[in-house]
Design goal:
Rossmann fold; alpha/beta; globular; methionine biosynthesis; binds 5,10-Methenyltetrahydrofolate; THF_DH/CycHdrlase_NAD-bd_dom; 2 domains; about 15% strand; 10 helices; THF_DH/CycHdrlase
Length: about 290
């Protein structure tokens, strides 16, 4: 048996089309174009693709994108000042400060300064708290996109066992919250979990978000399970650079019921959900939601 391959690239393209139509309607009804400000401090070669794809997506969705590229040695105070300026700018509906930040900058301080109503990454503690108590707010893009892909292959998670590998604030924890909202029984596994393969084998839905290339093997997977691979790892194979997930796709695809590939799985959904969060923010700002 071979799994259904979940085409995140196609789902994301469909989502972008819908966002473009909704953004055009918002422009027609309220004269507003959703604006996304992206702040980059220093050059991170690994995130170059992300930046490029983000710019392409904003253009395609008819959103306005403002890029702020600062040198790696920019003092923290300058980044904080820029965030305050963007907080006050009515043309800016979303602010994304790309992570990781250089070491002289306290990321928690910067993320905590972003106005929660413009926090399209959903990283502000207020939005994290809203998600955990079930209040409306911004949901981080990767979990939001992953949940859309899961909903595309199953309509009922009630009572199912979902295992999330990884406890980060940006993926693991919010992903667990979303699955819990769907009435799944949720386990968050991490680097200290005892017998991780055995825990994974009990999962009806397995979300891998650890950042360890090819860690999850086919024999860790329950036959028929839904496998969502959040990892985007660059490795060398025969002297050539290659992008792989946290899941060993070739062995996993033989066991799973449905699985996301890397690339063209969760990655494009992350970007589409960033557009979606920015549109939602603009709608709320003009009272159109
Ligand atoms: N504040 C903040 N928010 C983020 O969401 C954030 C961040 N900082 N820093 C960097 C990481 C990385 N990230 C990616 C999202 C999509 C792709 C993506 O679209 N990947 C494609 C292309 C992969 C390729 O060809 O390299 C794919 O998976 O198919 C990649 C990487 C978001 N991040």
């Amino acid at each position: 048996m071979s799994a259904t391959i979940i085409d995140g690239f196609a789902v994301a393209a469909g989502l972008r089309e819908k966002i473009a139509a909704d953004a055009a309607a918002l422009k027609a009804s309220h004269g507003v174009t959703p604006g996304l400000a992206v702040v980059l401090v220093g050059e991170d070669p690994a995130s170059a693709v992300y930046v490029r794809n983000k710019l392409k997506a904003t253009a395609e969705c008819g959103l306005k994108s403002l890029e702020f590229k600062l040198p790696a040695e920019t003092p923290e105070a300058e980044v904080l000042a820029l965030v305050e300026r963007l907080n006050a700018d009515p043309a800016v509906h979303g602010i994304l400060v790309q992570l990781p930040l250089p070491k002289q900058i306290d990321a928690d301080k910067v993320l905590g300064l972003i106005h929660p109503d413009k926090d399209v990454d959903g990283f502000h503690p207020l939005n994290a708290g809203r998600l955990s108590v079930g209040l409306p707010g911004f949901v981080p893009c990767t979990p939001r996109g992953s949940q859309i892909l899961i909903d595309g292959v199953t309509s009922d998670l009630s009572g199912k066992h979902a295992v999330v590998i990884g406890r980060s604030n940006i993926v693991g924890k919010p992903m667990a919250q979303l699955l819990l909202q769907k009435n799944a029984t949720v386990t968050i596994a991490h680097s200290r979990t005892k017998d991780l393969p055995a825990v994974c084998r009990t999962a009806d839905v397995l979300v891998a978000a650890v950042g360890r290339p090819l860690m999850v093997k086919g024999d860790w997977i329950k036959p028929g399970a839904i496998v969502i691979d959040v990892g985007i790892n660059r490795i060398e194979v025969d002297g050539k650079g290659k992008i792989v997930g946290d899941v060993d796709f070739d062995s996993a695809v033989e066991v799973a019921g449905a699985i996301t590939p890397v690339p063209r799985g969760v990655g494009p959904m992350t970007i589409a959900c960033l557009m979606l969060n920015t549109l939602d923010s603009a709608r709320r700002a003009v009272g159109a939601s």
